Queue: 3 jobs
Job 1
Amino acid sequence: MVIVSYSDAFKRQVRRLSRKYRRIRSDVQPLIDQLEAGEIPGDQIQGVGRTVYKVRIKNSDALRGKSGGYRIIYYLHTEGSVLLITIYSKTDQSDIDAAELVNIIRQEDNS
């Protein structure tokens, strides 16, 4: 079993998004279950210098499917540990910069 933890940035973003999208936690839960089961969904992001993946998940509140849903970025910290780095709604934000991801990972490594 894999341990899934959350960055401070991820927690803040879920709190902020939950004001607009009430079902965000239930939308994210299937991904957490997959990660805990040892699966590695999504596409690997190049240029970060770490093993980082981006996953598309549907937003039940937006009724647009995965393409208009959430993007979750996670980091394979160790073989038995995954860190959820960030989450954003594709309707609110088009993409995230690799430098921003590196910055969040460094902050978590230092805490």
Job 2
Amino acid sequence: MHAPLAAMCEIFGGALVGGHTTHDGTLQKTSAIVNGILSVPIDPNAFDAADAEREADGIPVDRATWRQIRDSAAALGFADAELDAWTRRCTERA
């Protein structure tokens, strides 16, 4: 079940730390067991504040980017009234 994850860890770990993997062809001594994994623990809760702020305030979009978004939506067939309603809804949250 976890074999693909373990294989990925071995491959990337060996490459990142410049060490060997547990594959027989890379070992100098075939009786050795090598674990060259690099671990970087990350606390997912550290991202909660930024996520909460974006959820409350939205993501700022400059006028040029918003114009490109509107132009793309119009090219896909969205009506101007529908785009205007969406624009009002988004700016009311800010």
Job 3
Amino acid sequence: MTAERTAGLSARIGEPLGETPWMRISQQNINRFGELTGDTQWIHTDPYRAAHTPFGGTIVHGAYLLSLAITFAGQLLPAEGTSMLVNAGVSAARFRSSVPVDSQVCGSASIVSAEDFGDATLAEIRVAVHVKGQSKPATTATVRMVLHD
């Protein structure tokens, strides 16, 4: 199964894998992420104070956007016949623009590479996190995923 999956993914290198559904990032989501990670910097969690910055309000944590990129990679990667999908790392992460609270975001992806990895397949997926109404992605990253039989 691994060799067939690797060959199938390799045949799709560079091909767009589609887009995830749009999702809204609320202040409650931002606050929860901050509490879980210990990043409660006011630019993310204090709407009143953040309103008086060039951002005009709170913004989403970069680490939150990177977490979404990993999630979106898993959602978009063709993984038929896979029993387990494991995040194996992230590289080339770029935060290209801030993302205001209550933004709608979605992910798009394409396969960069696929190779046999023991009894699994190691795939690299280029992911972009898009913000509704913005022409360029806010975040891009290459996510490494291991697909196990």
